[in-house]
Amino acid sequence: MLTEKWVPLPFIxxxxxxxxxxxxxxxxxxxxxxxxxxGVSEGYIQRTITYNFxxxxxGALIYGPLSESIGRRKxxxxxxxxxxxxxxxxxYATSIDFLMLSRFMQGLGACTPVVVVYAIIADRYQGATMYxxxxxxxxxxxxxxxxxxxxxxxxxKYWGWRGNYAVVAVITTAAVLLELFFLPxxxxxxxxxxxxxxxxxxxxxxxxxRFIQLSLIPSLFFAAYMVFIASSAFLYRxxxxxxxxxxVVHFFIIVSSFSIPSLFSAxxxxxxxxxxxxxxxxxxxxxxxxxxxxxxTTPYAITILMSLxxxxxxxxxxxxxARSMSVYPEIYGVAASYxxxxxxxxxxxxxxxxxxxxxxxxxxxxxxxxxxxxxxxxLSMLSFIAVPSKVKE
Length: 393
Hints:
By secondary structure, the chain is mostly helical. It contains 15 helices and no strands. The protein has helices spanning about 10-25, 30-40, 40-70, 70-90, 95-125, 125-160, 160-180, 195-205, 210-240, 245-265, 265-270, 275-290, 300-325, 330-355, 360-380.
């Protein structure tokens, strides 16, 4: 293996995360064309996101503990190979069933870098350098996520919907090659893959109300966001009869309203008066925006309200996530895998349900999102009457 001086580690990590972070947003502008291509309903194509996150559910539970056992590098290569097979399957799919299977494989592989990359950073760097590295990686990913819908719309216009999946396959191939030749193994002391120990850790997390509450709130917000993502192309392009370029502009504004505040979340939190105050402001803004969406009937009103929701979600997410991880700091890796799996499972269940309800009107999407955010309100109220579980050593 060539040394890190040839290809910097941060570059490898960013490329490894890139395909998995943009593959959903890139494909959304193509949804109406995919429905026509396969001769299926709008809801059927929305389920490609459901199957994608179903892969995340299973992968997220495994890759964290697996990387502790066989190493970060091997785990990244396994996940990258699975994602590449899924991307190629999507590119050449000749039936809707094969497309769904391929989307599942994409999700199964795409969650690998999401789980493992930050463990690699923690292995290699400490203190301020580690925080700086995490910020650098997040900065690039936020930029790519904001550009993904524009790139996806452009590719769909000139190369068709298969072109988006082909581009993801190319990026994934580049990531696998970089990992194969340049990614060092950062996990020096490996531990045995003990299924019983892992299961006990998951049961321990499940039994702690505080951890579940802090994990569920941002996960439910994210699931509501994914309901919008799955419905957006049909809503803007067919219900509101916007052109593809116009839809891409609306979509870019909404995605940027999450990714850009996420990039500057530390500064925004400080400006709002600290973690607790920013968390409250963000949650209130997100909740009010979604309930107001029930009254929105124009694409411009929906875009404004979704942008406000994304901004609120972006500033409350870091504090909620950090507090959930602090409940059991000694099993951080397992807790991160568990949270990702819960989040993916919620996306699977809620987007799956929404795909059966949505027939093109904005109110169907809004009702589902408001119901999900209603659970956030309920969880927040429970925190005032529930006694937090004590962490036992």
